[in-house]
Amino acid sequence: MAKYRVQIPWRCEVAIDLGTAYVRVATGKFAVATIPTALSPVLPLRHGVVTDQQAVADLLGPLLRRANRLGLLRPRVVVGAPTDATCEEREALATALYKAGAAFVTIVSEPLAVAIGAGLDILSPYAQMVVDVGDGVTDCAIVRAGEILESHATRVACGSLRERVQGCFHQSWGLCLTAAEVERMIATVGAGKLLRTDTHILVKTASRDVGSPVALTVRPATLQSMIEPLVSEIIDTATNLLQKVPPALGCEIIESGILLTGGGALLPGLRERLTEAASIKVTTPAKPLEVVIGGLRGMLMHA
């Protein structure tokens, strides 16, 4: 079994949720700062791990320098990483943060931060399961007595749905959809049962020669067929983890339920699909996008 225990060094002053779509930074005293990774001229992350160390350093450097001006001097940092991150990927993450100005870096498995941020009692002797469907990774873990007992992750998540829809529209109709339009389309059809009414989608063509938008009517079934294989893979990530745990552990999870967080918790129908597939009650926190940074920040305050 893969086990992870929280070991936060004294005076970790900055918490960082380094997400594929957004980076969130917090200290024990100041509000959370949220930065879209799209602001970086070079893609800093993909599927939850660092793809360009310098881009990450450039993105986070100003925030860590601001911490210096607050009198902390080169701050110590606690940061989340997917449970399936390799040693090389974790090393790249640490190196990027050192380049950004960190004095010391502690890497915590994100599902543990999720559990803390969502208010679960991670020291409970009974197993609890979290399913974090982010932008780049679906990360599932079973937490008990302050440890991750079992975990399973796939590099398929909300961003994969957007990429699939954008790719299908470009390949089939030669159209380029904005990220906002794709988000609206996916939210319209969701991950639940098939919708039978048509939805009207306004998109802009990829051609620069055509300045006016093109009105295109697309059947919900067409959209759902695009994303269904990926939605099924997200759900399978959680059910596959459940299938490999011992029966006694499974019984504890049935009692405690499953916590669904991340952007996937906001996708209509996904919670119901997961409940049906696992035959276990699934709940979502009030602010599913903020549980990782909330948990990391909580670690700062109790370190």
Describe this structure in words.
- The chain is an alpha/beta fold and 303 residues long.
- Helices cover 41% and strands 24% of the residues.
- The protein has nine helices and 16 strands.
- It has helices spanning 53-72, 87-100, 110-117, 158-173, 179-189, 220-243, 247-256, 270-278, 291-302; strands at 4-5, 14-18, 22-27, 33-36, 45-46, 49-50, 76-81, 104-109, 128-133, 138-144, 147-154, 175-176, 199-205, 214-218, 258-261, 282-283.
- The strands form four sheets. A six-stranded mixed beta sheet has the order 1-11-10-9-15-16, with helices on both faces. A five-stranded mixed beta sheet has the order 4-3-2-7-8, sandwiched between helices.
- The longest helix is centred in the C-terminal third of the chain and has 24 residues, at 220-243.
- The chain is globular, with a radius of gyration of 20 Å.
- It starts with a strand and ends with a helix.
